[in-house]
Specification:
This protein is an all-alpha fold. About 85% of the residues lie in helices and about 0% in strands.
Amino acid sequence: MSKSLNQDVDEAADRHLHRLVLFSDAVFAIAITLLAIEIHPPEHWHGVADLFGQMGHKLWAYAVSFAVIGVYWISHRRIFARLRGANGVLDVLNLIVLGLVALLPLTTELLWEHASPEAAFVYVGPVAAIGVAMSVVWGYAAFAGELAGRVHRGEALFTLARTAVAPGLMCGLILFSLNHIWGLIPLALAIAAFVAGGRFMRRRAAVGGLETEVQAEEAAA
């Protein structure tokens, strides 16, 4: 009876998580589609060069936002792939993330309609807020909610920090480098640091897991 009850609970948690992921994917897909829908060609243009000249700022803003939403979708997918269930608190935290993602088409339009430092600042704000909200989702799932199963503490903390800081920082550096070519240098350094840090923490997690298995085998013997 107890085994059957536990199985029913596990199946319900799986269905809950599955529906949450499906709903999230739909919001990401709609947001990324609205980016293109909001792009309208100029009323008067003469030749391909003039067309792209008039639409250049819109296409740049679209490309940046497409990359931002794509990166956040990948991050969201990776986080939720590590979860073994969901609950009401995770639903609310995830809705906050999705609410911020849904604002990106609006802030993208602001970015291309008013190509100014103020518009860029307003744009980067929600992008950074999504990262913070996503890190709260991961932090709750990995620590408070215990929804992520066995996770190496160091790797979990690195994922928390990277999720919170990386997207807003990268987006800001990309926009900065569009007007200042030397901005590509800190952008490249930031990418290298996050990649190297991720690999280092994964190696540490793998070593820690191997040590745990050895200790368990020794204890069993």
